[in-house]
């Protein structure tokens, strides 16, 4: 899964060497195309087909509900419908804001951690290093539901630190009143919180848990293979540790770092299980995936797919960026080998 | 080497921060899980895990994950092989979208699959078409109609709310694991070995069975194990498509959520520990396989 540079020359050789039975080849190609079309292409295209089931107007109405024409007299039912549509779209916006805010906290924290962890585990040798590396990967093998559950058991009512955590009162850290603004888009969920579970703080924690290994894992193989020679050279010339890091290590690993950040962001936006468990199904705690579930349960098919289409576009972007980075690293690798 | 490493600064800072962050956000919460489950007495724990609804959900999770992993084992191998060995239109596109299940949020996957298999969904009639197609083919070959008309009805709503639908989404989430572990091994493979085998008189099937397959076996098994482990813990996509009827179409992670909604924390913890143990066992198998194949490589 890591962006290992593909040995394209040997791949070409392999394809040329494939002189097997043409019937077998045709059958396998047909099976591959059929399988991938049903299992990957169909669901992907279906998201957009369903999202645009009511046309572009229907799609946009999920975010910007139609307002009544100026001076029109509306019946009670029409007024109610408009008010309902306004409430629904506000809930969707609130989910989008919360998703962005959570990712804005989670991703930088995981970048700092990933850099620190990769530095400690690749530039040094110490006892327990292998154990530390496997512990960093641990969240990948934990079910998302269990990832949410552990925080409820730690900080929820009856939790290990439940007495302390449930009486914790804290103001909304995302509120713009801290910087002198009255609240407004995009960060206007003004609340004061009690407790940790069923608040955005728990959503942040659960999201950190499930996205924990991405940055560290994409950096480690590269930093391991680059060794310490360049850093030692810089240090011996009198550069400080920070300067060595910024001028030597950071440029060397920037693409791997970007790769990890993209994967981490995609997962932070899309996490469902862990976030669902700690959100308490409260509307103001909805992130975009949770909002999709609520719309689906309310039989609001087209709106659910509209929100889903935004996340799907992000996923497509993630894949494009990932492929671009892989090609770039493979090319850099090839150029570096050509020079030698 | 160790003298050199000491020249590089930052070990106390980075290691300290790593340990702090890891402990606070991963190890401490996991310890809470162990503690909560440990507070139950042995018989109590046994009663929770042998509750018919819980055993049924664990059985369903296992059965569906196993079927999905086996389907992925076969098709993942075919897809990886085809992508590496053959050229066909849009090969690069198909190669790139293999990672789509990694990038797509699970809720979106569940939503779109649940919709695809509705009666008027794109795949709602696919089971019937496949059955009819196989029967028509058999008929022209003079074999009668081997499949009853409803043989693949598990691919149609409302039957997709049961095991069939769950298996389909688990195939989706597990597919890239198999393809992406087998693919690099096939890419690295030196075709000289095949030429050698062919010159010794082996046919294609024998070459695959005796020469290529042993080479990709460890990667293939660990890919399938990863797909299985992912399927066991999967929640988001499954609850969209499954009917979620206790004892029939409720997966084990949903049992945890149900217990939490009833404030049965200890019971939820017990099921959580069971799931976590399974995942860690699979992980151990994978690690064992990897170190085995590394040792094997070094000997060769």
From TrEMBL, chain A:
Record-linked InterPro entries: MetI-like, MetI-like_sf, Sulph_transpt2
A family per Pfam: BPD_transp_1
Topology versus the membrane: Multi-pass membrane protein
Subcellular location: Cell membrane
PROSITE patterns (UniProt xref): ABC_TM1 (PS50928)
Tagged with keyword Membrane: yes
SUPFAM superfamilies in alphabetical order: MetI-like
Domain ABC transmembrane type-1: 96-326
Keywords: Membrane, Sulfate transport, Transmembrane, Transmembrane helix, Transport
Entry function: Part of the ABC transporter complex CysAWTP (TC 3.A.1.6.1) involved in sulfate/thiosulfate import. Probably responsible for the translocation of the substrate across the membrane.
Descriptive protein name: Sulfate transport system permease protein
Organism: Rhodoblastus acidophilus
Automatic annotation (TrEMBL), chain B:
Organism field: Rhodoblastus acidophilus
Lineage start: Bacteria, Pseudomonadati, Pseudomonadota, Alphaproteobacteria, Hyphomicrobiales
Family statement: Belongs to the binding-protein-dependent transport system permease family.
PANTHER family attached to this UniProt entry: SULFATE TRANSPORT SYSTEM PERMEASE PROTEIN, SULFATE TRANSPORT SYSTEM PERMEASE PROTEIN CYST
Task of the protein: Part of the ABC transporter complex CysAWTP (TC 3.A.1.6.1) involved in sulfate/thiosulfate import. Probably responsible for the translocation of the substrate across the membrane.
Protein name per its UniProtKB record: Sulfate transport system permease protein
Limits of the ABC transmembrane type-1 domain: 58-286
InterPro entries: MetI-like (IPR000515), MetI-like_sf (IPR035906), Sulph_transpt2 (IPR005667)
Alphabetical keyword list: Membrane, Sulfate transport, Transmembrane, Transmembrane helix, Transport
Entry GO terms, CC: plasma membrane
Top-level taxon of origin: Bacteria
Subunit structure: The complex is composed of two ATP-binding proteins (CysA), two transmembrane proteins (CysT and CysW) and a solute-binding protein (CysP).
Molecular function terms, GO-annotated: ABC-type sulfate transporter activity
Subcellular location: Cell membrane
Transmembrane regions listed in the UniProt entry: 12-35, 62-84, 96-118, 159-179, 219-245, 265-289
Chief location of this protein within or outside the cell: membrane
CDD domains found in the cross-reference section: TM_PBP2 (cd06261)
Topology term for the membrane: Multi-pass membrane protein
Pfam family name, one: BPD_transp_1
Gene3D superfamilies: MetI-like
């Amino acid at each position: 899964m890591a962006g290992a540079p593909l040995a394209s020359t040997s791949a070409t050789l392999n394809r040329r060497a494939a002189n097997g039975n043409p019937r077998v080849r045709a059958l396998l190609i047909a099976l591959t195309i059929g399988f991938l079309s049903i299992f990957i292409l169909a669901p992907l295209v279906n998201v957009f087909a369903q999202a645009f089931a009511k046309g572009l107007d229907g799609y946009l109405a999920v975010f910007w509900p139609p307002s009544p024409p100026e001076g029109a007299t509306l019946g009670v039912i029409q007024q109610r419908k408009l008010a309902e549509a306004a409430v629904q779209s506000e809930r969707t916006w609130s989910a989008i804001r919360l998703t962005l805010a959570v990712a804005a906290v989670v991703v930088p924290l995981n970048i700092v951690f990933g850099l620190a962890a990769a530095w400690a585990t690749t530039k040094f040798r110490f006892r327990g290093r292998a154990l530390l590396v496997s512990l960093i990967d641990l969240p990948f093998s934990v079910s998302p539901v269990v990832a949410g559950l552990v925080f409820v058991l730690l900080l929820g009512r009856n939790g290990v630190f439940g007495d302390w955590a449930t009486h914790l009162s804290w103001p909304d850290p995302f509120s713009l009143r801290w910087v002198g603004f009255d609240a407004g888009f995009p960060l206007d969920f003004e609340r004061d919180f009690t407790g940790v579970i069923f608040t955005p703080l728990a959503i942040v924690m659960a999201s950190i848990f499930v996205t924990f290994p991405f940055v560290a894992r994409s950096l480690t193989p590269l930093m391991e293979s680059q060794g310490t020679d360049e850093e030692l050279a810089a240090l011996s010339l009198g550069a400080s540790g920070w300067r060595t890091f910024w001028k030597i290590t950071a440029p060397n690993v920037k693409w791997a770092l970007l790769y990890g950040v993209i994967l981490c962001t995609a997962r932070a936006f899309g996490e469902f299980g862990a976030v669902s468990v700690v959100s308490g199904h409260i509307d103001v705690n909805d992130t975009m995936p949770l909002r999709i579930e609520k719309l689906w349960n309310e039989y609001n098919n087209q709106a659910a797919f509209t929100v889903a289409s935004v996340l799907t576009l992000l996923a497509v972007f993630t894949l494009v960026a990932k492929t671009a980075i892989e090609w770039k690293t493979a090319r850099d690798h090839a150029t570096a080998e050509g020079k030698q | 080497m160790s003298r050199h490493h000491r020249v590089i600064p930052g070990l106390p800072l980075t290691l300290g921060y790593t340990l702090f962050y890891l402990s606070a956000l991963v190890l401490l919460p996991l310890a809470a899980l162990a503690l909560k489950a440990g507070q139950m007495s042995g018989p109590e724990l046994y009663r929770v895990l042998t509750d018919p609804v819980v055993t049924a959900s664990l059985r369903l999770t296992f059965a569906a994950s196993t079927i999905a992993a086996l389907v992925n084992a076969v098709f993942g191998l075919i897809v990886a092989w085809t992508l590496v060995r053959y050229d066909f239109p849009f090969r690069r596109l198909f190669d790139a979208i293999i990672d789509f299940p990694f990038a797509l949020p699970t809720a979106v996957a569940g939503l779109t699959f649940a919709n695809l298999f509705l009666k008027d969904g794109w795949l709602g009639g696919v089971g019937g078409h496949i059955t009819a197609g196989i029967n028509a083919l058999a008929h022209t070959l003079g074999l009668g109609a081997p499949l009853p008309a409803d043989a693949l009805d598990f691919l149609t709503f409302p039957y997709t709310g049961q095991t069939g639908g769950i298996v389909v989404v688990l195939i989706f989430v597990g597919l890239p694991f198999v393809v992406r572990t087998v693919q690099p091994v096939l890419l690295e493979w030196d075709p000289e070995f095949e030429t050698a085998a062919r010159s010794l008189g082996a046919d294609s099937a024998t070459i695959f069975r005796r020469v290529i397959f042993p080479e990709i076996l460890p990667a293939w098994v660990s890919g399938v194990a990863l797909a299985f482990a992912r399927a066991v813990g999967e929640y988001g996509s499954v609850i969209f498509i499954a009917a979620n009827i206790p004892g029939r179409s409720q997966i084990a992670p949903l049992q945890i959520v149900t217990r939490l909604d009833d404030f049965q924390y200890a019971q939820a913890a017990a099921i959580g520990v069971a799931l976590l143990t399974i995942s860690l066992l699979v992980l151990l198998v994978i690690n064992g396989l990897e170190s085995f194949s590394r040792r094997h490589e070094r000997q060769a």
